[in-house]
Amino acid sequence: MDLVKVVQTYIDKMMEQASGMKIFLLDADTTPIVSVVTTQSTLLEKEAYLVDKIDNRQRDKMKHLKCICFVRPTHDSIQALVDELRDPRYGDYYLFFTNVVKKSMLERLAEVDQHEVVREVQEYFADYVAVNPDLFSLNMTLARSSVYGESVHDWDGRALQRTTEGLMSVLLSLKQRPLIRYERMSAMARKLGEELNYAIHQEHQLFDLPPVDTPPLLLILDRRNDPVTPLLLQWTYQAMVHELLGINNGRVDMSNVPDIAPDLKEIVLSVESDPFFRKSMYMNWGDLGAQIKEYADEYQRQHKSNMKIESVHDMKRFVEEYPEFRKLSGNVSKHVTLVGELYRLQTRCKLLEVSELEQNLACNESHASDLRALESMITDPKIRDENKLRLTILYALRYEKYSSNATRHLIEMLVQQGLGERKVALIDAILASAGADQRQGDLFQNQDIFARSRNVFKGLKGVENVFTKHEPLLAQTLDQLFKGRLKDADYPFVQGVNRDRPHNLIIFYVGGATFAEARLIAHLNASTPGVRIVLGGTNVVNSASFLDQIEEISARSASISPLAQRLTGHARRAGI
Amino acid sequence: MTTRSRTLLFLQYRSSYTRSHLSRAPTLVGDSTERAGLIQHAADMDDRPGGDGSTVIEMSVLPPQWVDTMENIDEDMDRLRQSIKRLDELHQKQLLPGLDEGLRFERDIERLQAEITSQFRQCQQRIKHIGGNVRSPGTHGLPSNEEDRLGRNVQVALATRLQELSSMFRRKQSSFLQSSKGRRARRDCYSRGAFTKEQLVLVEDTEAVVAQRDREIREITRSISELAEIFQDLQTMVIDQGTLLDRIDYNIEQVNASTRGAVEELTKVGGMQRGMLSIAYRPSLLTVDAGRTSI
């Protein structure tokens, strides 16, 4: 179940369909899908000499080329194909869709193909972005489309369809027909589970797979049941870069880094083409430092020996090692710059101090000292507003039910420090959407006396790293699942029941997965023989994008009056 | 990895449409009806349903001229690969024990090496001509013309392949060099100590062989340095793998930015023309207005 390999194989198979010089046409959805798993040079090797967008109308006619189209079967892309086929620019067309193509769409395409240029029409189910071998994203970022409808309890109609199709393609590409379980507290998880179950029944021919002893399991979770994980600073490489700089389809924008070299203004972090990143993506900050030093030393060694070209022998060796050396030198300067920037941010914004308090708030119950520490951080001018806000949110979540809760007082302090109304309002928005009454289970393990004593004991162990004490809630959930203790009442099945330990497990987060969870899954995959887990989400969030989502939906539901809400509800149901 | 073919269904649909169109003939098909009366010949040209294009040859059907060169380069590279394979075999034989045999392959190896080096040079020269007169093969300054872009990408692909081939060749050369040096060192070791007469005779022979080997090594080193030049030249053409420049989305963005630039340029020109037209027409409008007021 290696998602990157799967999507690569799909693309290879597309390229094999037509020999000779080719153009590869993509749409807005398939461009990131293809870009994260393969490169321009790989496509050139397969004689795909041009790559372009299907909706680019400026393309020239080149009948000597064969055209491979890979698009999502959306209205826009079908329309673009219709326009293309009416007046074909290329000799032959091979059409590949990321998902099930409706018969009406096929008919439309067939009708306009009067030049009979279409040679193949295939469905290749790569309808997701394979971020890591065991992590996928549906790239439903706020900028593109919100996941939520009118509140955090219901879907935006288009988003639900997109998510159902995306998950279906994951299942088909991995050849899994799973049982589906969902988190009880989440109406959206249930809705998605039911829709998907329906879709699987509709496309039963596609899902006609050989029976297995223990069926695979799809576990649909809701981000709101664990709001803590995305709020914490992360100290492993991939997660840290995403938190502090943002990773967008494997690209990192470095243009705000002081004195950045022009060729490093934007960099690529790819599991596929960057061996150093593949090795270090899950390493923690301390190990990463040692690793990067070793990497830079290796470069120095090679550089020195390359500098010393005295004999023909040296020259020969240099030429031989030059491509490797060039690759190495590019990659070293990339990672050294990136880690340098992370280090700069960490020291300038006192991130270690912030993180220590974050971890305390996430893991231990200790109100008096937490409050004291938080108050002094809020007044510390070196600490960024966003960190102050997030610390207060963590406090508000942990001590939500605590008798001498001081959230109001902290909010006042934040306002005094100059944080805007909109930002401060997020604290209540989070409590309303992901507070204790919204969640299931005991996230902070502080809701009963037994849990509390366990918690205190956990705090006493004290051997772990203070910055990585916290484990995502998912770790607990999976532990229970593998021990067969995950309650049906809390995680109901959509259809059918099987409590055996599954061999293949797909986890999906409505509202976005995190790289912290991805690291956990990678770790479990490496350490648990016989179990293969794949993690996915509507997107991959960091603290900023998670809070943006909450802010957007709470602003929207505040603006919709109850009457208007009812009206749009009707309109939606009527299919307007 | 599930896939599902919809080709048959599509073809069914298509043939049913074609039939229904045929039954409606000779009323012309699709959007050509509008143009039919105006420029009939042109309409015939682009809208012949499933036309074989044998009577009218569109320019866009013809591949660029350098496609022939490309095929030549492909053949050249195949030949290169075979030559390298042959050389490798000779190297193996040369390294087999049995000293006098070594001399026999000597000439062959030298000849083949020279041949390979010149084949490399020929390929490299030919690759330079791909894409016609595309200048600045650097990765920035994207050519705006699509055909140029195609040519440049073909050039990149071929250069990458040739580079791989050349590094393979150099690896083989240097490993051969290493093993023959090793043999020499071993032999120098043996030559110390006491010998029988026969052995001394053998050593004398060996001296000649050693001189021969030295020449051989010099020869290879020369060919390697010659290749180094070719290699450096190729390096300017290939993409650094795994960098932003190798990203598909980045390249698409660059292309779209450059075409968008072109479109903006066009609309600007169009706007200017319209502006000029409206200036030109204004006086006549005025006269009409004047006429109207006078009524």
TrEMBL record, chain A:
It comes from the Eukaryota. GO terms for cellular component: cytoplasmic vesicle; endomembrane system. Keywords: Membrane, Protein transport, Transport. It is a peripheral membrane protein. One of its GO terms (biological process) is protein transport. It is found in: Endomembrane system. PANTHER family: VESICLE PROTEIN SORTING-ASSOCIATED. Belongs to the STXBP/unc-18/SEC1 family. This is Vacuolar protein sorting-associated protein 45. It comes from Syncephalis pseudoplumigaleata. The lineage of its organism: Eukaryota, Fungi, Fungi incertae sedis, Zoopagomycota, Zoopagomycotina.
From TrEMBL, chain B:
It is found in: Golgi apparatus membrane. The keyword Transmembrane applies. Keywords: Coiled coil, Golgi apparatus, Membrane, Protein transport, Transmembrane, Transmembrane helix, Transport. PROSITE patterns: T_SNARE. GO terms for molecular function: SNAP receptor activity; SNARE binding. One of its GO terms (biological process) is vesicle fusion. It comes from the Eukaryota. SMART domains: t_SNARE. Its main location: Golgi. InterPro entries: SNARE, Syntaxin, Syntaxin_N, T_SNARE_dom. GO terms for cellular component: Golgi membrane; SNARE complex. Residues 207-269 form the T-SNARE coiled-coil homology domain. It is a single-pass type IV membrane protein. Belongs to the syntaxin family. PANTHER family: SYNTAXIN, SYNTAXIN-16. This is t-SNARE. It comes from Syncephalis pseudoplumigaleata. The lineage of its organism: Eukaryota, Fungi, Fungi incertae sedis, Zoopagomycota, Zoopagomycotina.
